[in-house]
Each structure stands twice: as C-alpha cells, then as structure tokens.
Amino acid sequence: MNLNDKHISKASRPIRPLPNLIFMSRWLQLPLYLGLILAQGVYVFHFWVELVDLIGAAMGNQAALEHILSAVAIKGGETPTKLNETIIMLVVLGLIDVVMISNLLIMVIVGGYETFVSRMNLESHPDQPEWLSHVNASVLKVKLATAIIGISSIHLLKTFINAGAYDSKTLIAQTVIHIAFLLSAMAIAACDRLMTAPDHAKNSH
What we know:
By secondary structure, the protein is mostly helical. The protein has helices at 3-12, 17-24, 30-58, 62-72, 85-116, 137-161, 168-204. Helix 3 (30-58) crosses helix 4, helix 3 (30-58) packs antiparallel against helix 5 and helix 5 packs antiparallel against helix 6.
C-alpha cells in the first residue's frame, strides 16, 4: 500500500460515535448566529427610526426634534427649537455607529459560521467578502478588535462633542476604556504575528 492509498483509507474511515457527537456539537452554535441575524434586523429598524426622525426634524416636525433631543441627551443652555450643526452631527454619528456595529455583526456571523460551524463554499460567488477567503480564528479576532476600536472611537467622539451632558469622571472613563481597547487590539495583533511567524519560516524553508 502506497502513501496515497493510506490517505484515502484514512479519509474514508468512519468517525467513531463519540468523536462524531463531539464534532456535531458545533451545530449548537447555529441558533446563536440566527439570533445575531435577528439582532441585525433590530439595528436596521433602529437605523430607519433615527433617520426618519432626522428627516422629520429637518422638515420642522417638533415631535421628531424632541425625540432626537432626548436620544442625544443635549444639556446646557436653552433647548434648541430647530436642528443645528451639533444635533445633526450627533445624530449622524449615531447612524454611523449603528452601521459599524452592523458590520461587526456581519463579521461575527459570517466569519464565525465559516470558521467554527461549516464551510459556505462562497469561492465562486461574486459578492464573497475579500477577508473571508483567508479567515481563521486568529484573523477574525484581529478584525473584531479593530472594529471594536472604530465603534469606541465613534462613541468617544459623540461624548466629546456633547461633553456638557457628561461629568468629568465619565469623560475620563470613556477615554481610558478606549485606550484599553486600543492596547488590547495591538496585543492581539502582536500575538497573532508571533504565532504566524514560525509558520512563515517553515514555509520559506
């Protein structure tokens, strides 16, 4: 029996019941990813509610303006009676925040399912994400950490634009948390580089 025959016999060998049960347990993650898809739908609904309120306030709808003011929690001075640059900026940053969280959800749903549950076989699909072709658990962690930094940056920017609505402790805490996210992402990326370096060295030889 040559080497190829050995590989074929190993590939055709049935999995024992216990290892097969353990391996099949990966499908228990499927309801989790379906739940994230439902959460994605909630974010889409929230996005359109905020967008409709913004458009309504721009057209002079006082109820829409009040809803926006309660959402962005503007404090200090008189309550605005119409849209101004600060309000528009805060609402738009909120919409961008929703989009970035939605992107994060897509990365978790698609990348997590592809990595931990089952292959999607999207190689021939024209809309296959570029990062999905080389995704693994390590790459997924780095991408998620980068996405979280982007979301944290939007939150921090919203806080500083509307600094009057927060006390100094909150501002300092959000800044420290953002720096912690940044350092964590750098540490994850460094660890990933150290772990992949030996593989590249072996391949070069």
